[in-house]
Write a structure and sequence with these properties.
Layout: E1 4-7, H1 13-24, E2 28-33, E3 48-52, H2 58-66, E4 73-76, E5 82-83, H3 91-119, E6 122-127, H4 140-160, E7 165-172, H5 179-182, E8 184-185, H6 194-209, H7 214-226, E9 233-236, H8 240-249, H9 252-262
Parallel strand pairs: 1-2, 1-4, 2-3, 4-6, 5-8, 6-7, 7-9
Helix pairs in contact: 1-7, 2-3, 3-4
Family: Belongs to the short-chain dehydrogenases/reductases (SDR) family.
Domain Ketoreductase: 3-169
Protein name: SDR family oxidoreductase
Length: 267
């Protein structure tokens, strides 16, 4: 039986790598993009059907799912990366990132869950970030969205797993996908946070330029999908086994200082 996988944000980065990996494994893959017609032919993957979806528009999501048919696997990957001092983040920017990173993915999950439950099979992967487990200064809005989708997945998995539907979160560390160039930044020219902001985000950008390839994250996503009973959380990159082990045994204040110092900040 050919299963259908839906991957949001499939035109680049982790989404594109995941769509390619699932297609290679024989899945029928539907990849979403806000504007699929803008994807160059050279960047389109064979075996992937590209469909338009605006995750910030609830009506768009309803129309999309109504025409979709059965979905066995959902990879909620699309999102925005945002940075700025919390004092200076515009309200509309916070609303936008929550609409795209949280509310849209949760609504999409709600729409496909009934079919998964009725068929007795489903896999849902929320693509989060290790920043949700190890928060970084000037990323509060982004960190909050990734913590939120992890919370939805970790709580709701208790509800749906008796029906053969498993929710899990994959938290990548630093990934070399060019995301630093697409990150939205909010910092005033005369901001009292300006120096620390550029120091921390500069370190972050440098780490990402040396990070793992998107294909490594895709491999972890596929492993979660293939698991008979996927774990609540998978992490990959940024020495994840070591830092998660350290988090379990070290005092929280020590981990906080370690993260600050690694990004050139005093604590």
């Amino acid at each position: 039986m050919t299963r259908t996988a839906l991957v949001t944000g499939a035109s680049s980065g982790i989404g594109k790598a995941t769509a390619a990996a699932l297609s290679a494994r024989g899945y029928r893959v539907i990849g979403t993009s806000r504007n699929p017609t803008n994807i160059p032919d050279a960047d389109r993957l064979a075996g992937v059907d590209y469909l338009a979806l605006d995750l910030t528009d609830a009506a768009s999501i309803e129309r999309f799912v109504a025409d979709l048919g059965e979905v066995d696997v959902l990879v909620n990957n699309a999102g925005e990366s945002q940075s700025g001092p919390i004092e200076e983040l515009p309200a509309d920017a916070i609303e936008r990132i929550f609409a795209l990173n949280v509310f849209g993915p949760v609504q999409l999950l709600q729409q496909v869950l009934p079919g998964m439950r009725e068929r007795g099979y489903g896999r849902v992967v929320m693509v989060g970030s290790m920043l949700a487990s190890f928060p970084l200064a000037y990323r509060s809005s982004y960190v909050s969205t990734k913590a939120a989708i992890k919370g939805f997945a970790e709580a709701a998995r208790f509800e749906v797993s008796p029906f053969g539907v498993w929710l899990t979160t994959v938290e990548p560390g630093s990934i070399n996908t060019g995301i630093s160039e697409r990150r939205t930044k909010y910092i005033a020219d005369d901001s009292p946070y300006r120096d620390d902001f550029h120091t921390a985000i500069g370190r972050l950008d440098d780490n990402e330029s040396k990070g793992i390839a998107a294909e490594k994250v895709a491999d972890m996503i596929v492993a979660a999908i293939d698991a008979e009973k996927p774990k609540p959380l998978y992490a990959v990159g940024s020495r994840s086994p070591l830092v998660f082990a350290l988090k379990r045994i070290a005092p929280r204040t020590f981990v906080e200082k370690m993260i600050a110092r690694a990004h050139g900040l005093s604590r």
